[in-house]
Amino acid sequence: MSENKNDKNLEENKEVVTNEAVKEDAAETAVIKETTGSTAAEVYDDYEEATPPEEVTGKKKFKLKKRYVVGGVAAVLILGAIGRQFLVGKNQVTMVETSPVVLGNIENVLSISGTVQSAETKTYFSEVAAPIETLDIKVGDKVSSGDVLYTYDTEALDLAEKTAQLAITQAKGNYNSLYSAVGAADRKYAEGMTAQQINDRLDAITAEINSLNDKITEKTNRINQTLKDIQNTQYDINQNSIDDKYESYFDGGSDSYITRNESGNKTDGEYKEPSESDRQMILALEQTYNDVSYALKTDAEIKSWNDQITALKEEQSHLSSAKAAQVNGGTAASSKASYESTQLTQQDTIDKLEAAKEGVKADFNGVVTEVAVVEGATVTAGAKMVTMANLEDVQVALSVSKSDLPKIAVGQKVDITINGKAYDGEVIKISGNATKNSNGVAVVETIIKVTNPDNDIILGVEATNKIHAEKADNTIVLPYEYIQTDAEGDYVYVVENGVVTRKNVTVGISTSTEAQVIEGLSEGDEVISSDVSMLTEGMAVAVNNM
Predict the structure, then answer these.
(1) What is the distance between the alpha carbons of residues 510 and 479, in angstroms, rounded to a whole number?
(2) Who's near 159: CB < 8 A, 6+ residues apart?
């Protein structure tokens, strides 16, 4: 529209100049007529000179022909009109239209199609070895979370469970047969000790017991020596009270005779009456002897040493048994490992068999994409059964060209249409590796997550996506046609003081119709919005925004 207006203005300007030139031509002609007093034709028609008689003799007089004079005058008139037209055009002001620079909003929405796919697929493998009893699904079926996909023969599952339990019992029996209850206690007593550590401790215990026994022996000998000294003193005193002829009774250390005579029995023969002092001494020695004998039996230090020896011997016994058990440590460790391994694997089998009795159920709302088994077949553990795609986690995969790639970022919102139904989405992944499409063009895979999926979604179909890419609010926005481009870059023409002025600009976000100017213009600048193809910087213009 701006171009049409500009053309109209140019035509009007040309028409004004032409009319003015015609008028001036007419005025000039009138002046000529007024000066000669007749028309131009009349002037030239009467201009013919006769030949004088004296020149008849051979000389010929030239005469100015009418047609040449008229042609010359017409040429002068035309040149004058053109000159005046040039002077009038040079002083003419060009009319332009402008648009004030204002702040606005701009958003770049990219429309790119992609393929609907599930972000999660799961393949179910058989956890047990058993026949398939029921299988009521096929490829393409939509199932809900908790729906039964297939079931096993329960009788076969029960038999397999009993077999597993028997295997655990057998392994446990084999392990327990290697050890008695006492031997198990001894091994626990030495738990964490190596054979060398056990040997070192046994040697230390033996040394401690020997040391304690030496202490007990030394102290017992000292006490016994004291008792013996007391007895010898008693012999000496009694011997002094007996008649010499009866001293032979003391040979060999017998003191029975002394005891009988001291009791006052005189029937055994003559004896000397002991003195009072000897009698008192004998009584004191007897008391001392009894005290020392008692001390020998009840000495606290000797008792403590004996208690220590008893504890050491108990430890010695346990360690010796543990040492004996470690002689066959390899077999013991192997048997224990076999038992524990059997228990783990068979218990896992039992747990899986118990779970299989309830049938295999879907873990999420989804669609069946593959069925690899048939009803009635006996499957082995680990056999592939069914594959499902999750309809609760749906995404759209699209290929982005290098020109659109800078405009896309993770987190941008997307309007998605699948089979005519609208969904919300968000850019969640931009690949770090480009690939080439079928046309050999480099593209980057981008993933959009569908944030509100439902069971109406069909996987594998095409989805249209409107990505809300770059966006800026409260910024300078111009129609794209206002912006020109040359070797120096982007620029616009503005009117400043009635003159065309070029302003270089930096373009930010751009759409098919608008562009953001992030540098080079200020709010309020008057940007020329009409055709600028005939304008040059510095040209005088007048604004006509009617």
Answers:
(1) 10
(2) none
- Domain hosting residue 174, numbered range: 154-240+276-356
Residues in contact with 406: Cβ distance below 8 Å, sequence separation at least 6, in sequence order? none
What mean pLDDT is reported for the chain? 78
- Stretch (H or E) spanning 148: strand 148-152
pLDDT in tens, 407-459: 899 999 999 999 999 999 999 999 999 999 989 999 999 999 999 999 899 99
Question: CA-CA distance, 468 to 408, in Å (whole number)?
Answer: 9
Instruction: Note whether residue 411 is domain-resident.
Output: yes
Same domain for 313 and 415: no
Same domain (yes/no): 365, 309: no
Looking at residue 325, what is its pLDDT? 61
- Distances 405 to 92, 151, 409, 410 between C-alpha atoms, Å: 50, 49, 8, 11
Residue 206, domain member (yes or no): yes
Cβ burial, residue 128 (10 Å; 0-12/13-18/19+) = buried
Same domain, 173 and 183: yes
- Look at the block and give the residue holding tokens 């220590």: 308
Q: What is the pLDDT of residues 99-109, one digit of tens each?
A: 999 999 999 89
Give the chain's domain count. Answer: 3
114 burial via Cβ count (<10 Å: 0-12, 13-18, 19+)? buried
What is the value of pTM for the model shown? Answer: 0.49
